[in-house]
Amino acid sequence: MSYSRIWLLSALMVAASAAQAGSKEPIQPIVAAKVKSPAMVELGKKLFFDPRLSKSGFISCNSCHNLSMGGTDNLKTSIGHNWNQGPINAPTVLNSSMNLAQFWDGRAADLKAQAGGPIANPGEMASTHVIAVEVLQSIPAYVAEFKQVFGSNTVDIDKVTTAIAAFETTLVTPDSRFDKWLKGNKKALTADETAGYKLFKDSGCVACHNGPAVGGNSYQKMGAVSAYQTASGATGRLGVTGKEEDRLLFKVPTLRNIELTYPYFHDGEAATLTQAVETMGRVQLGKKFTDAENAQIVAFLKTLTGKQPSFALPILPPSNDKTPRSQPFSK
Ligand code: HEC
Ligand code: HEC
Questions:
Q1: Enclosing H/E stretch for 233
Q2: Which pLDDT does position 247 carry in this prediction?
Q3: Domain ranges in the chain?
Q4: From CA 79, how far away is CA 66, in angstroms rounded?
Q5: Out of 1.10.10.10, 3.20.20.140, 3.40.50.360, 1.10.760.10, which CATH number does the structure's domain 38-169 have?
Q6: 119-170 pLDDT tens trace
Q7: Taking the complete model, does pTM exceed 0.90, yes or no?
Q8: How far away, in angstroms, is 255 Cα from ligand 2 center?
């Protein structure tokens, strides 16, 4: 028996005995974000929405992490510069501050480390940190805002990523119906939804999807019990650690707002929640759910949609004669 299989079984036993003992739930409510520096969050919000951080002047963080659509692009894999089709599905930025690390393979330690990546990724925003900073530095209203937040007229990539990360930290989604239920309002869920939660616990989904984000806190093998077939070349943690045993280990995704963040899995192959639940049962647990059970689990998952971040659309200061021009159609 493989190590991951033994680990999974013991985690399942712990989860099952916790459930029997009636001890506290494996999932906790999301706590609303406390904003430490409102000015920094405002600046980060502008940067998140500013397509001038891309070479084309057309792609912003919000293009692929659309906050009107659960912080994702709802595409199988993302589209970047020059209509480049990316290799992997865009995870949501909602509640991403709760992740043990960023990206499917966890290669960025935190949100600040992550935020520099897409700006300079040739397949995503295709700019460089130098040009992105030149663009911002050329716009007096941005310079004034950086000065107000960081106490210096000099814009640099460290400040840019610090501000974006501060904004992202506010993108949490409390007050889902499930959280209301956890906090004692037993009328917040229907009978089918509660039955779905019981199946989610008793079948062992909670061994990997637990904590306030219902995931995001461990790396697990995709195909813990039987192999997952995919055409995607993504290798998961292997790419970070170089260890063969880490092949196809991915950060367990959060299931918060899962109804909004389709399609599912790193390869975007599951178009619907019904399909995702079927696959998870089969490859992670060796279980085949009946249609009724699958529907109950899906009903439960839909109760995890929380209050979406809501704010006035940021108005971006205009470019001027000194601002480096964007290059929409360049390679
Ligand atoms: C062209 C589409 C695209 C753009 C633009 C883009 N992202 Fe992403 N983002 C992705 C994809 C795809 C991934 C997953 C990549 C991986 O895991 O290898 C990702 C991953 C992330 C993650 C990690 C989430 C998690 O759960 O691991 C965060 C946070 C994030 N992006 C924030 C940003 C920010 C901030 C910007 C703007 C500076 C940005 N992204 C721009 C597509 C995009
Ligand atoms: C052994 C750990 C493990 C178990 C058990 C497990 N999952 Fe997962 N789950 C994962 C991992 C890892 C992924 C990401 C896999 C990938 O994208 O290749 C995932 C992905 C998902 C997704 C898609 C999320 C997204 O944003 O793409 C859903 C939905 C899901 N799981 C639901 C469930 C349900 C329901 C169960 C129980 C029937 C379950 N999981 C059991 C580890 C697990």
A1: none
A2: 96
A3: 3-30+175-304, 38-169
A4: 13
A5: 1.10.760.10
A6: 999 999 999 999 999 999 999 999 999 999 999 999 999 999 999 999 999 9
A7: yes
A8: 8
- In CATH terms, 3-30+175-304 corresponds, of 3.40.50.300, 1.10.760.10, 3.30.930.10, 3.30.310.250, to 1.10.760.10
Distance, CA of 263 to CA of 65 (rounded, Å): 13
Q: Which of these is catalytic: 42, 124, 269, 278?
A: 124
Ligand 2: residue whose CA is nearest its atom 17: 265
Q: Residue 278 has which token pair?
A: 């079927």
Residue by residue, DSSP assigns 234-288 as --BTHHHH--GGGTTEEEPPP-TTTTTS-SBSTT--B-SHHHHHHHHIIIII---
Burial 294-316 (b: 16+ CB within 10 A, else e): bbbbbbbbbbbbbeebeeeebeb
- Which ligand places an atom closest to the C-alpha of 92? 1
Three-class SS of residue 151?
coil
- Reference 256, options 218, 204, 307; nearest CA is 307
What does the alpha-carbon distance between residue 264 and residue 74 come to, in Å, rounded to a whole number? 9
Show the ligand 2 pocket: residues with CB < 6 angstroms: 8, 200, 203-205, 207-209, 220, 222, 224, 250, 252-253, 255, 258, 261, 264-266, 276-277, 280-281, 284-285, 297
Span 52-62, pLDDT tens digits? 999 999 999 99
The per-residue pLDDT for range 91-113, each reduced to its tens digit, is: 999 999 999 999 999 999 999 99
Q: Do domains 3-30+175-304 and 38-169 have the same CATH topology?
A: yes
Catalytic residue status for 124: yes
Best residue among 3, 14, 198, 284 to mutate for probing ligand 2's pocket (most ligand atoms within 8 Å of CB) is: 284
Nearest CA to 64 out of 129, 128, 119, 112 is that of 119
Of the candidates 156, 131, 70, the one whose C-alpha atom is nearest the C-alpha of residue 330 is 131
DSSP H/E element including 97: none
